[in-house]
């Protein structure tokens, strides 16, 4: 019982002795604390705060899409349109596809770090670490349904890089739209050219068929005119009944008389080949189809001209709204961190003073 009481008294004496020791060496403690605190303060001042950046997209710039207004009007006239048109939804969908690949940001960050990091593998690792932080998120905000979120300790630099990247992505979107429409137009032009060629061949066949039939008919009428002249049948346009059946003279055309037959022969021989459509309905229908196909073909040429008149340098349909941007610091405020540094510095200083003083006492005791 006396032993435990003695130990408690020694513990109390040891604790107060440590406090007295710290107080007696307070100037050393304050000096070390001040030095450590200053070092911590300098570190905090030079360290860059990390931010969570949230920047919404602006609504699609309809003025940029006005470049494609004439194109949409042409596309509406296409029979084969199949819903192809340039609208804000399509542009934003293409933008998100290009943005997700992050390729537009590679060159930007490569130029930022190429002088700082010489090793290619380390440079690529740093670049991919930087560019993968940009991500697109969705919200329930109807005005700004999408935003870009990223963590950064260099917000100004990353925003500038982001703006450059978005400009490049817009140009890639423009090129993709033009390429898609050019492919669409080129494919349909090829189909139309083939269709027109087939119709023209069909028209030629029908023209030859008509001319052949015309020759046959003229020859037929000439033969019957000769028969009528031999029978001295001058003129008779009446219908004749043979075996009780009324017919229009065909194999009996000579019964119409050579005067009427020769008159018809003269008319048929003077027919203008350019006016075949007036005499042959099949020929007329084919010619109508060719005219329609050629009109569509001209629409594709109009589309190509309209595409050439668009300007990719001025196409900036998707942009970020910096007026609605939020930058939230990650972690505790610096004042709290500095306070913690001061407390820790004081404790470390006190422990160092205690250990060093005890070490001196121990060394002196050894010398004695």
Strand content: 5-15%
Oligomer: single chain
Cross-sheet strand order for the largest sheet: 2-3-1-6
Number of helices: 12
Question: Helical amount among residues, as a percent range?
Answer: 55-70%
H/E element order: HHEHHHHHEEHEEHHHEH
Q: Characterize the overall form.
A: rod-shaped
CA(first)-CA(last) distance: 35 Å
C-alpha Rg, in Å? 48 Å
Low-pLDDT parts are: 1-13, 239-249
Largest sheet: 4 strands, antiparallel
Give the second-level CATH assignment, the architecture of the domain at 196-308: Orthogonal Bundle
The count of β-strands is 6
Helix/strand structural class: alpha+beta
CATH topology of the domain at 196-308: Helix Hairpins
CATH class of the domain at 196-308: Mainly Alpha
Mean pLDDT, all residues: 77
Describe the structure.
With 368 residues, the protein is of the alpha+beta class. Among the domains are: 1-49 and 332-368, no CATH class; 196-308, Helix Hairpins, CATH 1.10.287. The protein has helices spanning 2-24, 26-46, 62-65, 69-77, 88-101, 103-113, 120-131, 155-230, 258-269, 276-279, 281-308, 334-367, and strands spanning 51-56, 135-138, 146-152, 240-242, 245-247, 326-329. Strands 2-3-1-6 form a four-stranded antiparallel beta sheet. It has a two-stranded antiparallel ribbon with strand order 4-5. Helix 5 crosses helix 8 (155-230). The longest helix has 76 residues, at 155-230. Mean pLDDT is 77; it is low at 1-13 and 239-249.
How is this structure best summarized?
This protein is an alpha+beta fold and 368 residues long. Helices cover 67% and strands 7% of the residues. It has a four-stranded antiparallel β-sheet with strand order 2-3-1-6. It has a two-stranded antiparallel sheet with strand order 4-5.
């Amino acid at each position: 019982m006396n032993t435990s009481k003695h130990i408690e008294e020694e513990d109390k004496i040891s604790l107060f002795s440590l406090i007295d020791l710290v107080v007696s060496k307070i100037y050393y403690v304050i000096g070390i604390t001040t030095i450590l605190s200053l070092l911590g303060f300098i570190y905090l001042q030079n360290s860059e705060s990390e931010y969570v950046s949230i920047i919404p997209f602006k609504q699609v710039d309809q003025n940029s899409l006005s470049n494609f207004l004439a194109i949409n009007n042409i596309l509406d006239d296409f029979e084969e349109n199949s819903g192809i048109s340039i609208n804000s939804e399509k542009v934003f969908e293409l933008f998100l596809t290009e943005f997700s690949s992050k390729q537009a940001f590679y060159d930007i960050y490569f130029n930022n770090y190429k002088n700082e990091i010489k090793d290619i593998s380390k440079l690529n690792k740093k670049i991919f670490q930087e560019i993968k932080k940009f991500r697109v998120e969705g919200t329930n905000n109807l005005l700004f349904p999408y935003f870009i979120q990223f963590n950064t300790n260099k917000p100004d630099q990353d925003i500038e890089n982001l703006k450059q990247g978005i400009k490049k992505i817009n140009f890639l979107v423009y090129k993709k739209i033009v390429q898609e429409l050019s492919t669409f137009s080129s494919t349909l032009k090829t189909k139309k050219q083939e269709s027109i060629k087939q119709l023209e061949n069909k028209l030629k066949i029908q023209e030859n068929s008509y001319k052949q039939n015309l020759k046959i008919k003229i020859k037929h009428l000439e033969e019957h005119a000769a028969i009528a002249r031999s029978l001295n049948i001058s003129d008779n346009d009446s219908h004749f009944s043979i075996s009780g059946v009324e017919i229009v003279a065909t194999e009996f055309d000579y019964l119409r008389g050579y005067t009427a037959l020769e008159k018809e022969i003269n008319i048929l021989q003077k027919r203008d080949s350019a006016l075949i459509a007036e005499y042959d309905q099949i020929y007329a229908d084919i010619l109508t189809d060719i005219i329609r196909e050629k009109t569509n073909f001209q629409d594709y040429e109009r589309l190509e001209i309209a595409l050439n008149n668009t300007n990719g340098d001025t196409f900036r349909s998707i942009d970020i709204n910096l007026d609605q941007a939020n930058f939230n610091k990650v972690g505790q405020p610096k004042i709290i961190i500095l306070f913690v540094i001061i407390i820790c510095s004081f404790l470390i200083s006190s422990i160092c003073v205690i250990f060093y003083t005890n070490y001196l006492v121990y060394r002196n005791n050894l010398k004695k």
